[in-house]
Design brief:
GO terms for molecular function: oxidoreductase activity, acting on the CH-CH group of donors. The protein is of the alpha+beta class. Helix content is about 35%, strand content about 20%. β1 (about 5-10), α1 and β2 (about 30-35) form a beta-alpha-beta unit.
């Protein structure tokens, strides 16, 4: 058979680029097909904050954090809560990935030029018990350069391989079928879409201009998840998270459509854990949208008061930054698909960050001058822009006026009673009169300030929300934001796609989000954050190496 390449990769996102770089270094010829234009090279990773999960890193040690492989694995397995027969490979992937994160990951990335911001973030702090969900210690390492900084070394290597003739890009090529010779995958077939000049991340047209077919010894599916496809999200929504929201906003570009999952399943691949997914509850509508229903996630510190749609405070331990899916399940079971933060100007100055490369120009531009400016100039510029222009933000000096505008923004029946809201906040404020407290959130924010990183840049000094000296008051409507697919194509540790019989489908591999970041769901039911980009890198690297050995 005449092959067009040794390997075809479907998807030019991070996982696909890492696999392509490994294949090119092994001297293999690769075709990368992607339905988007060249300007979207790097896919969804470009828009990310660039967080990476590392264990016992130099950055942690400098911040006086004591971490270990055993502690990280305990946290991962407690969070994943694997409980299904099909979780065998996801569990093996979890063990392998934690070993990578505690071992060669940082050195391997450093060799490729990736550097890290010195303060380690503490995401997903957990449910309150040592056993179960959450990070026991800070592990969220922000890449210097954010998402584009993560992509940069792999983009450079792939472009150099393109110049050498080892890699060929086929943009605006949409795969509709994986072709076979007997039982082995031998290529792809699909439609050539009309050229598009839209800027990165914008929705591109789907007008068909022709068709194509390519042959290779192996195909790696690296097409991403389902977060841009609300119909697919709702179809797979699990009962344990309540009823699927009527209204969602979108944390990923339109092309994150999940179409390759069904196409690969039709070719014999097995999909597991369809109901496992990762969506955020701190979503705000972008005042300057790039893709459809463009959402930004607030990365909150621990001080804001969190109220449901009727003004009742969320229960222990559902505080900002503690348990994403636990909070999602609680909110959806209230019968509403939104909630509220109430905070002060002092809190927003120190505790509000926004996820995404474009919302963090200081880190994305690798500018220490801008970083220092962010820390010393009051409310960060991107946050101030949302405060001034974002439809989900309300600013008032007095609580009655704030609550009245909150009811107006929600529309319909006024659900928030000023008496109820004031009682919740005033009771919390009274807990600050002593260095001890029965309020678990007050205890948590004091505990957060025991961590040097949080005290320096992420947690405001405890203060009373209703004290005018700390104002004005700010309310933020928080929406459900779609993001990650935690289930996907089942793969073994070589990223070979497995069929319904548990055996590898010859010639077929899957990496990144389409494979649940490894195995069909390396995170189990929930994630520890900083683990999505890392899962793309780890699975892409492994697939590239395994495929290079498997082709002639």
């Amino acid at each position: 058979m005449a092959y067009d390449a040794d390997v075809i990769i479907v998807g030019a996102g991070l996982a696909g680029l890492v696999a392509a770089a490994e294949l090119a270094e092994a001297g293999k010829k690769v075709i990368i097909v992607d339905q988007e234009p060249r300007q979207s090279l790097g896919g969804q990773a470009f828009w990310s904050f660039g967080g990476l999960f590392l264990v016992d890193s130099p950055e942690q040690r400098r911040m006086r954090i004591r971490d270990s492989h055993d502690l990280a694995l305990e946290d991962w397995l407690g969070t994943a809560a694997f409980d299904r027969p099909e979780d065998h490979w996801p569990r093996e992937w979890a063990k392998a990935y934690v070993g990578f994160a505690a071992g060669e990951k940082r050195a391997w990335l450093s060799e490729r030029g990736i550097k890290f911001f010195p303060v380690v973030g503490w995401a997903e702090r957990g449910g309150g018990n040592a056993v179960g969900h959450g990070n026991s210690v800070p592990r969220f390492h922000v890449t210097w350069g954010t998402g584009p900084g993560v992509l940069e070394p792999f983009v450079l290597r792939v472009r150099e391989a393109e110049k050498q003739g080892l890699i060929t890009f086929k943009f605006r090529h949409r795969v509709s079928e994986l072709t076979k010779s007997g039982t082995a995958i031998d290529g792809v077939r699909g439609e050539v879409l009309e050229e598009s000049s839209v800027e990165r991340g914008h929705k591109s047209a789907r007008t068909v201009a022709g068709d194509f077919a390519f042959k290779a010894q192996a195909v790696i599916v690296a097409s991403g998840g389902i977060g841009g496809n609300h119909d697919l999200v709702r179809r797979n929504w699990p009962e344990r998270l309540g009823k699927a929201p009527k209204r969602m906003i979108t944390g990923v570009p339109d092309y994150v459509d999940g179409r390759m999952l069904a196409i690969t399943e039709s070719a014999g691949g097995s999909i597991i854990n369809r109901d496992r997914m990762w969506h955020y509850v701190e979503g705000i509508r972008n005042w300057a949208p790039i893709w459809t229903d463009h959402a930004i996630r607030i990365l909150p510190g621990p001080s804001s008061i969190w109220l449901d749609a009727r003004g009742k405070r969320l229960p222990v331990p559902l505080y900002p930054g503690f348990d994403t899916l636990g909070t999602l399940a609680h909110i959806m079971k209230t019968g509403f698909d939104y909630s509220w933060f109430i905070l002060t100007e002092k809190i927003i100055r120190k505790e509000f960050a926004l996820s995404g490369s474009e919302q963090n120009p200081d880190l994305t531009n690798k500018s220490w001058r801008q970083v220092i400016g962010r820390a010393t100039s009051g409310i960060p510029g991107p946050v101030k822009a949302f405060l001034d222009k974002g439809e989900d933000f309300i600013v008032e000096r007095e609580l009655p006026a704030l609550v009245a505008r909150m009811n107006g923004l929600a529309g319909g029946e006024p659900l928030l009673d000023i008496g109820q809201v004031e009682r919740e906040i005033r009771a919390r404020d009274m807990q600050l009169d002593n260095p001890f407290s029965k309020d678990m959130q007050v205890m948590a924010l004091r505990g957060a300030r025991n961590y040097l990183g949080d005290k320096l840049i992420r947690t405001a000094k405890p203060h009373k929300i209703l004290d005018p000296a700390n104002g004005p008051l700010i309310a933020v409507r928080l929406n459900i934001l779609t993001r990650k697919t935690l289930g996907g194509l089942q793969t073994d540790l070589d990223s070979r796609v497995l069929g319904a019989d548990g055996q590898p489908v010859e010639g077929l591999y899957a990496v990144g989000e389409v494979a649940g970041f490894g195995g069909g769901g390396v995170h189990g039911y929930a994630a520890l954050e900083g683990t999505f980009l890392g899962g793309c890198i780890f699975s892409g690297r492994g697939a590239g190496r395994a495929t290079a050995k498997g082709v002639r």
